[in-house]
Amino acid sequence: MNSSDEGGYVHDPATFDEDGERADVADDDSTAEPPHPEAADREFDWRGWTVVGMIVLTFIVAPAAITFWPPDVGYRFALLSLPLFPAVLLALTAVWGTTRP
Questions:
Q1: Quick check: pTM over 0.90?
Q2: CB–CB of 54/93 below 8 Å?
């Protein structure tokens, strides 16, 4: 059994022309140069401010809430859940804010 029967890649020099391009592929976009990031029309809009608000919530409000949480009212909750929920929200907001159509 040779490797072409297994479905793996087999290099065949006859499929390439003198320039090194595949002769059997017509105008394939997969090798095209990707657009430069500065060419995209992106600006710091309300999505960016939403991410900044989540950063403030995660790094300022949550630690302050832990600091001022009364020790007799579920201190374990304060140390585990108060940092966890804003961190998850920050992660989700960052992904949402940076992926644009």
A1: no
A2: yes
| pLDDT tens digit sequence for 13-32 | 777 777 777 766 555 556 67
Do residues 83 and 91 make contact, with C-beta atoms less than 8 angstroms apart? no
Are 96 and 61 contacting, i.e. CB atoms less than 8 angstroms apart?
Answer: no
Residue 86 burial (10 A CB sphere; 0-12, 13-18, 19+): buried
- Lookup: tokens for 34: 């990707």
Lowest mean pLDDT among 45-54, 55-64, 70-79, 85-94: 70-79
Count of all residues that appear for the chain in the document? 101
Q: Tokens 């940092």 correspond to what residue?
A: 83
Q: CA-CA-CA-CA torsion for 54, 59, 62, 64, nearest 10 degrees?
A: -140
Maximum distance among all alpha carbons in the chain? 79
